[in-house]
Design goal:
The protein is mainly β. The protein has no helices and eleven strands. Part of the 50S ribosomal subunit.
């Protein structure tokens, strides 16, 4: 499945408990249509002590959220926007904001 969000994109959450938050995409999972966003959907995980992490305990980390619950953030519009694709004159395919026609670097 093709997703509209990629790793290192700045996105805005449009639904759920973290609605309105902005963050950078840490990782995307195209098969599951989910993304990990920095400081969004924080969950607690009980971690056992291991060789790498000597001290166990409760760790807070990001949980995956549905890609349909985030929109690409446009700095010109200052909000999450829908995007389209277009091919530039040099043959490069880019995403653009459907509100202000601003292109996003891929």
């Amino acid at each position: 499945m093709k997703m509209h969000i990629k790793k290192d994109d700045i996105v805005m959450v449009i639904s759920g408990k973290d609605k309105g938050k902005k963050g950078k995409v840490i990782q995307s999972y195209p098969k599951d249509a989910k993304v990990l966003v920095e400081n969004v959907n924080m969950v607690t995980k009980h971690q056992k002590p291991t060789q790498q992490m000597q001290q166990g305990g409760i760790v807070r980390q990001e949980g995956a959220i549905e890609a349909s619950n985030v929109l690409l953030y446009c700095e010109k519009c200052d909000r999450g926007v829908r995007t389209g694709h277009k091919v530039l004159n040099d043959g490069k395919k880019v995403r653009f904001c459907k509100k202000c026609n601003e292109t996003f670097n891929n």
